[in-house]
Amino acid sequence: MSTLDAEASNFGFRWRKSGATAGSTASRSSRPRTTSRRASPGRTASSASVQWPTVLHAEQRADGSLGGDTSALNFWPWSRRPTGIRLVTAPARSFLNSTFNETAGSRDKEGRPDLMMRPEDAAPLGLQDGDRIRIGNARGAVLLHLRVTEGLKPGVVIAEGIWPNEAYPDRKGINTLTGADAVAPYGGAAFHDIAVWVRKA
To answer: CB 3.0 to 4.6 Å from 146: which of 34, 83, 131, 157, for a disulfide?
Structure first.
């Protein structure tokens, strides 16, 4: 038995010796099998002795899905249709994580939390570079200064994140605008789903 055959056997596979075709090279047992492999770093003794069956590409169904029934996860309606301008909260360049927003050097490089907006989005709202503005939605509002720039998509504004609440003029941070509503399918957070309005303060 070759090394590859032995390793495949440890994972519950039986490799065909000849006439193998794509998608039919290996088969698996339907129940977990025990092996004689010893535990290695990062593996418990129990995980080293039991190998649970895996889902092979050969078992792909006609609709492209694998394994068990996932029809309930394929589509779910939005609880609220987003309106207004899309807010993105990318990390500020000098803040790798929240530790850096406490260092004087990083704070000095960033200056203050601003809202970036394209000129064609700012003009209809009567907003100019440097204006003190308020952004908000049904959850609340945050006070910022406007930075007009062309480095983003139309209809999108960016408030670079990881600033602590006390860095904002009214001491309310950007998370004022985010929700804790559980979303489908598993009740996690809704990413990239913040719609806001923007007004002169």
So the answer is: 131
